[in-house]
Amino acid sequence: MDGTGSLGAVGIAGAALFFTGHDLGLGPGGMERVAAYPMLAWMLMSGLALLSGRRSRASAG
After folding, report:
1. CA-CA distances (angstroms) from residue 44 to 3, 5, 26, 32, 56?
2. Which of 26, 31, 45, 58 could covalently link to 18 via disulfide, CB atoms 3.0 to 4.6 Å apart?
3. Nearest residue to 30 (alpha-carbon basis) of 43, 18, 42
4. Pair 56, 26: CB distance under 8 Å
5. What is the pLDDT of residues 2-36, one digit of tens each?
6. Cβ(3)–Cβ(42) under 8 Å?
7. Where is pLDDT greater, at 15 or 54?
8. What letter does residue 59 receive in the DSSP assignment?
């Protein structure tokens, strides 16, 4: 997947900033979301990719 590395980098950076207390003006809750939401975005992208691949194989077969 194209966004896997970038989403992972954002999640790791967000988690590191959250745990060190740097909130970048977002507050602690905002940084917690920056650390957690990339995983949700990755799951959504992966699910959509799997569904689109499944539909294209079903229509080709």
Report:
1. 11, 15, 24, 19, 18
2. 31
3. 18
4. no
5. 788 888 898 999 999 999 988 888 888 888 999 99
6. yes
7. 15
8. H
